[in-house]
Amino acid sequence: MKGKDFLSITDLEPDEVSQMVRKASEMKIDGVPRLLEGKSVALIFEKPSLRTRVSFEVGVQQMGGNCIYLSQADIGLGVREPVVDVARVLDRLVDVIVARVFSHESLETLAEETTIPVINALSDLAHPCQALGDLLTMSEAKGHLEGLRVAYVGDGNNIASSLALGCASVGTDFVIAAPGNYHVPSVAWEEARRRAFEKESLLEWVEDPKRAVDGADVVYTDVWISMGDEREADERRKVFSKFQVTEDLMGLADDQAVFMHDMPAHRGEEVSENMLDHHSSVVFAQAENRLHAQNAIMAELLSG
Known about the structure:
The chain is α/β, with parallel strands linked by helices. It has 2 domains: 9-127 and 288-303, 3-Layer(aba) Sandwich (Rossmann fold); 130-286, Aspartate/ornithine carbamoyltransferase (Rossmann fold). It has 12 helices and 9 strands. The strands form 2 sheets. A 5-stranded parallel β-sheet has the order 7-6-5-8-9. A 4-stranded parallel β-sheet has the order 2-1-3-4, sandwiched between helices. The mean pLDDT is 96.
């Protein structure tokens, strides 16, 4: 880790990403260290969640710690009081902050104004915990990461950004099929390109889902309308109407390809009705692996 916090995949050097995936795999098998014994973890959630909240609460309990859940209604981050004040108070009361926020700037302020680890549980720019869990799932399903071809179909959002960085870091080819105005932000894409060059892997953006999926080992998608994008719902449904992952599209991938989705999924929008139950689907193993990836992250930050 480059510092005390985990806000982005870029907080890990490329080789460290692979190390974290291995660590998560080992802890999944061997169990977790009790590094949070007698410690408290604040979960700041501006956005609701099923997988993120449950996986972090279970993980903290497994590591011997205590969780304090703080919704936006509880603290009004940046509304009821400034983020800097919340940071300075929590810095004196808890041992770790896990934050799921609308603005990445809020995470950066929490990190700057505290001496304790801050973990990004989702922001508008990144979802690094998801990306590490995804890499663990790919590794389990395919037996390796280097040389795989991952086809991401849909919005170049925070999920796509973190996944591009993660894949590039471990030598996995990453191809995204997205409309022109919905590409991965340039800051994340340029860093992913740098990492892909270092690992001699492919990073590509196309506008044709069929071209992206052709021969892929992993086909991945996410919702078209994320929390905060509701005003654009009608426009996004029109723009992404040709970017739905269906059984027919999946048929263009490798015969042994797996299908992934970070969930929640909107059946009939980004996926056809039965894709989550498709024989290639590993979405529920993917959801479980968030727990193991996050445990590895907490163990790394606490042991460091």
